[in-house]
Amino acid sequence: MKKVHSMILALAVIPAMTLTGCTGAAPGPSSGPNGLPKQLVWSTYNVGTGTYNDLAAIANTLTGEESVQVRLMTADTGIGRLAPLVNGTVDYARTGDEYYYAFEGSFEYASPEWGPQDLRMVWAPLGNYGLLVREDSGIDSYEDLKGKRFPKLTANTSINNKMEGFLNYGGLTWKDVQQVPISYGEQIAGLEAGKIDALYQNVVGSNIEELSSKTDVKWLSFDDPDPARYESWKELAPMVRVAEVTDGAGMEQGEGANVLEYTIPLTTLGSRDADEVYRLVKAMVEHFEDYNGTTPDATRFSFEKVLKEPLVVPFHEGTVRYFKERGAWNEQLERKNNELIERGEKMREAWPEIAESSSKRDLAENWKNWKKTELDGESATETNKGTTNGN
Known about the structure:
The protein is α/β, with parallel strands linked by helices and 391 residues long. 35% of the residues lie in helices and 16% in strands.
């Protein structure tokens, strides 16, 4: 099992801010020949998560090697990570599926305050995530979750959708479990205290490693290839696939489990300067060996391993430029990316009229129906439909 290397994080962590009353973070002056601003602010998950540790390692490297001060702003919710990007408080955001929901204007983003957003992926490392239970819980399969205390994560549609997909895989629904409202960051303490019987986490990370060092745990596995068991995933989580891991927290040598694989990408707005994005991506690649090995998932940031196919949200122009330069872009990827860009433009053009003509209660349903009517059958939508993979 991989161990997290000790690391002194010489960066400032800004408390999470709300959407209202924040001062926008204007790009700073270039710091020299690298063309990057002297300061960048990124939003991400809470301290201690594998997601945070990855960015902290990269931030330290950019500060040391490129003289770019990268500050991390943490939040425990999708809106908490994404709102600062949209209002200009941060420059980049490493987000869960909220990047897709906000691009589409779906779920909590189908509201007068939000609607579809012009988002782009900058760098998309793949990661593995799953459902963890105590070894002595009596839970050996997803069917065994029936009647158990199951987390319903506060303000976290992306994970709750996956949790619903997990239940569906086991032939269950939310009605078959005891729903326990809890935040993402409170899950480990909740499991230890007996408030919940399972938790959703990255399979690696300092916090989950610490838990497994004190408590015998195991990861539930998706072992049935029957497509019917994954049917609801097409709508709930179109960006995920199932993959085997052997280095999850608590796993002994030779053990493995089939869990989710998807990207928690570094994102930004489509309007972000393409030269800056290109230089940032290039710097992350050129200095990869300086942060590789600092966290279990750092290796996934390598050029060879990152996702290069635009599945549900397009890549930024600056990233595409770098992919082209490295020979990792082709006509098919270009077409998919352009289709998604066009889809976003159509959604943002149509949104104001639909939002204005709909009551707050009916807005989400009217918006969903408009997309089904106006975008279904288009190549962009067909691209989205083909992104769910079974086992």
